[in-house]
Amino acid sequence: STQEQTPQICVVGSGPAGFYTAQHLLKHHPRACVDIFEKQLVPFGLVRFGVAPDHPEVKNVINTFTQTARSDRCAFHGNVVVGRDVTVPELREAYHAVVLSYGAEDNQALEIPGEELPGVFSARAFVGWYNGLPENRELAPDLSCDTAVILGQGNVALDVARILLTPPEHLEKTDITEAALGVLRQSQVKTVWIVGRRGPLQVAFTIKVLGPEGEGPGSQVDGLLLGEVPRPRKRLTELLLRTATEKPGVEEAARQASASRAWGLRFFRSPKQVLPSADGRQVAGIRLAVTRLEQGVGEATRAVPTGDVEDLPCGLVLSSIGYKSRPIDPSVPFDPKLGIIPNVDGRVMNVPGLYCSGWVKRGPTGVITTTMTDSFLTSQILLQDLKAGQLPSGPRPGYAAIKALLSSRGVWPVSFSDWEKLDAEEVSRGQGTGKPREKLLDPQEMLRLLGR
Ligand code: FAD
What we know:
By secondary structure, this protein is of the alpha/beta class. The protein has helices at residues 16-28, 46-49, 61-70, 88-94, 123-130, 155-165, 178-185, 231-245, 250-258, 359-362, 368-387, 399-408, 416-431, 443-449, and strands at 8-12, 33-37, 74-77, 97-100, 106-107, 120-122, 147-151, 191-195, 262-266, 269-276, 283-294, 302-313, 316-319, 323-324, 343-344, 347-348, 354-356. The chain is globular, with a radius of gyration of 23 Å. The chain starts with 7 loop residues before the first strand and ends with a helix.
């Protein structure tokens, strides 16, 4: 049976979901071999391209992922776009099981007039820009305005606000790209409004993001609505209300007085239209519809427009209303409404031998530990199916078959030891300026450095 042979398993995506799934499979099956396919040249998904540069401790999970990748039963194949360079049916043919862990690479559109104006960006692209995601390296946001508006009140919104308002010298020793640092040094942005449809009791960020670095001066809470707060939100709400209403201590008051930059939360507002400048060439403000809450408590509460509007002048609009997964391959079921692969406990519906984990399984919410738990569960289910004889029996060629296919198509994967060379290069480029690394941004340059 497959159990006695070597199960060949492949994982698509090398973010937390891909790596935690691989780790669990290798740990709980003594012979399983796991290949990880990744579209970028470099591994680690949003740990590299999402997590904010001033939260380096979050990136320590990379050490665990590196241990996994170095196992002789694990291989990393970067620079392979599944769905384009190789199809999911081809992978299913070559492996006993395939796990889709390809995250959520798109963002929800605002779907309001003016969204296309210069000066309007998705927070996803903005984050990709300061974190060195190759596709966003040309973003060059114009930060010559005084006020920025962030639409959405989740963790990502707060990350973006923090990066906009942190004095650039505090970011100099992080892995933020030198190009982003250059633009931030020239930034004129003094005020950042973080706008949400609902009230303070429904905000989506976790305490950590609002921690000491997040407590910007001048935070403001309007339209408080108190009621019964569901348990998980209790601490967050207390913290939010405290930071918003507490009288600052002497030191804090001095700090606030000297701080020239401020952020504030605007509740009960939903974006209606991006307002153009007089020449129509760029954003000059945003029209917000005032909302009120319809019955329901905590997260079940819906915001409905009251009919009033408010115009906020600003020169930069960042929309942070959510990430979104894309369908990967016509053969894989996809729920466009929920933006996930329909699955039961990680088993893709109606496709035996196909599994999913991480954001593409649950939707784009939750921190790395949530993704870890969820990925371990998918691996557990897969191993159960393997044991129960529900995966194809007989040997499978695994990577040998895919390697031949890829080279016939002119695709040259990048291995984990290739990544370790790029990693060493990044670390050495950062050394001169005291940064943990200076990220390589250009895939062509990376390939050249690898002698391709
Ligand atoms: P991802 O990390 O997105 O990994 C998916 C991988 O699949 C990517 O490497 C992608 O390139 C690859 N891929 C996509 N399509 C294909 C394809 N067709 N073929 C091959 N490969 C493909 N969590 C925390 O705990 N702390 C934080 O501070 C924190 N900060 C965050 C900041 C931001 C801006 C964001 C967006 C998220 C943050 N998170 C944080 C959440 C955390 O990043 C996620 O929980 C986690 O990354 C989800 O893991 P994933 O593997 O499902 O997706």
